């Protein structure tokens, strides 16, 4: 689910003051539409946010979740996607009840407000009654020990590092700011538009900035401020010659070529963008690639699997 969906559902959950269910994709073999770490929240009226498939499984999961909400007993569901659907794999889904107060929901709120990752542990050993999702306050070091050589001590537990949502800071006030604002908001990113440098938040690796004021002096001032902080992405809109002029000024003021080499300019991927909407698409795609450490090439030319546990899911599953 996107952070936008999650925040809306969390508000509904708090207003309703009743239990809900959470379904977590805890394991996958072969090809699947979503990867471990995907979650959906289900209300007592079967309304849900988030998806674990392309829409093939959600209604069935929401139906089973009603019983989980009523009894509080967690359930594991196995889906052979090869037999029932078009994917060449199988997945396991764990459904649990969340009651107020919910440490998981509160942990997600903390990840947003404090812009810091949280580590969630989902135990799904329904046979032995060891189930539920909790937040590990000590991070990965607090994960429970286990003996990988002993089947008797292997926990059925899923660990997931959940990063805060992408925050996008846009520096500009012309008409081309609006398309990227709308697209990024649709993606569930937190978007802020800045017309001056007063009160700009500190940087973090999940924050991206795009300088697009179309004013040389303002762009230079913004870049000086942003390059002095740590952001996951800094983009500059405009032609290469103007970029080089700005870089020359920054070098004269003591900025190192190594630091300046991190600047994405001209901002965006090479997709033939011309209109403001197309440019917004190119920039948003480049930010997504930067945040997930991808090269943004054609998927048909990718030699490795499309999804790996080291990619954007940021998950670790205990053996």
What would your notes on this structure say?
With 319 residues, the chain is of the alpha+beta class. The chain has two domains: 3-164, no CATH class; 167-291, Rossmann fold, CATH 3.40.50. The chain is 31% helix and 24% strand. It is built from nine helices and 13 strands. Strands 3-2-1-5-4 form a five-stranded antiparallel beta sheet, with helices on both faces. The chain has a four-stranded antiparallel beta sheet with strand order 7-6-8-13. Strand 6 (118-125) and strand 7 (130-135) form a beta hairpin. Helix 5 packs across helix 9 and helix 6 (216-227) packs across helix 7. The two termini are 25 Å apart.
- Give the overall shape: elongated
Biggest beta sheet attributes:
5 strands, antiparallel
**SSE order:** HEEEHEHEHEEEEHEEHEHHHE
The main sheet orders its strands as 3-2-1-5-4
Strand content: 15-25%
| Total helical segments | 9
**Whole-number total of structural domains:** 2
Roughly how many Å apart are the termini? 25 Å
List low-confidence stretches. 145-153, 310-319
Taking all Cα atoms into account, the compactness measure Rg is 22 Å
Range of helix content: 25-40%
How many beta strands in the DSSP annotation?
13
Q: How confident is the prediction overall: mean pLDDT?
A: 85
How does the helix and strand content classify structurally?
alpha+beta
